[in-house]
Amino acid sequence: MKAIVYRDYGGPEVLSVAEIETPRPGPGEMLVKVEAAAVTTADWRLRAAAFPGILGPVGRAMFGWRRPRNPVLGSAFAGEVVAAGAGADIAAGPVLGFVPGGAHAEYLIVKPGQCVVARPYGLDAEAAAALPFGGLSALVFLRDVAKVTPGARVLVLGGSGEVGAMAVQVARAMGARVSAMASAPNLALLHELGAEEALDYRSQPVTGLGRRFDLVFDTFGACDLTQARQVLVRGGQFVPLNFGLREMLQALTNCLRARKLRLHVSTDRAGDLAELVAMQQAGQLRPLVGQSFPLDQVRAAHALVESRHKRGAVVLRMG
Ligand SMILES: NC(=O)c1ccc[n+]([C@@H]2O[C@H](COP(=O)([O-])OP(=O)(O)OC[C@H]3O[C@@H](n4cnc5c(N)ncnc54)[C@H](OP(=O)(O)O)[C@@H]3O)[C@@H](O)[C@H]2O)c1
Prior knowledge:
With 319 residues, the protein is of the alpha/beta class. The chain has helices spanning 41-48, 55-63, 125-129, 132-145, 162-173, 187-193, 225-229, 245-253, 270-281, 298-307; strands at 2-6, 15-19, 30-39, 76-84, 93-98, 107-110, 115-118, 153-157, 177-182, 197-200, 213-218, 232-240, 260-261, 289-294, 313-317. The protein has 2 domains: 2-131 and 287-317, Quinone Oxidoreductase, Chain A, domain 1 (Alpha-Beta Complex), CATH 3.90.180.10; 133-261, NAD(P)-binding Rossmann-like Domain (Rossmann fold, 3-Layer(aba) Sandwich), CATH 3.40.50. Helix 1 crosses helix 10 (298-307) and helix 4 (132-145) crosses helix 5. Bound molecules: NADP nicotinamide-adenine-dinucleotide phosphate. The site of NADP nicotinamide-adenine-dinucleotide phosphate has 27 residues, from helix 1, helix 4 and helix 5.
């Protein structure tokens, strides 16, 4: 089968399309013919060993010190189960899922217990591949970490990115009043996604907004705790997706203060993905494919992701 491989850390040029052996499913495993897979910020960070902050050494220890241990990237995918070992959760048919790696290939083995759910026939593969990375982060951070309640005033920084576009919609579905920030060309998109207020971060700094929110959800790394506090109500929360040692120490020392910093790492549970699919089917959530690329243009896809100005998800078409 064809797969996108990388044997060294580096720029998009380390990626190439190669022929590798098609895997066979063992007991409980599924063989998925991948139709589409997202290229996420996680794929860019793994390819470039660009782990944020003190996670640099931790990332290399986990994913390969001198060179990558797993040569095939790709976590969020959509495809079709074409073979399954005895006892597999899903026997055949269209699926979407989120795995630790290997989805940037024509075929993928999904192991027992990994995050995969049946894909409704109305949800096409590209849109489905755009759902898990941003959707799971948005759902888990807003529902479980920030515990957003109806009427809460939520400010989403990086509202047009892969997590941000989902966060605007998930927060709206939870009944929050959403303000979101992006650059001027993406302000109309923020409104389309459901933001009451769309703000240009280039002309309106967070600290100058002149009003307060219950939650600042920073998907980009656009502000720090000191800045966030200036726009949070008492009891409000700052939830940044990107954090390093400084934020970890702040989270420990700030527990008695009126404005909280909450840190978390995203999870990948099939139940959460099923909830996102249900929201999509109910018309509450629209997966946003900013741009899709054929397999052999993977370097261009990575360059766009690394620019940090993609809209929604960047998707590879594997067929
Ligand atoms: N903690 C966790 O478990 C976890 C889970 C998932 C993701 N993450 C991290 O969260 C981040 C989210 O990634 P993503 O793919 O959704 O988005 P991204 O590509 O990193 O960011 C895109 C968004 O940021 C905006 N943006 C770009 N430059 C900006 C600037 N200078 N100031 C303010 N906003 C700016 C973009 O708007 P314009 O294009 O309009 O400029 C767009 O809305 C990644 O770094 C990822 O590693 C962490």
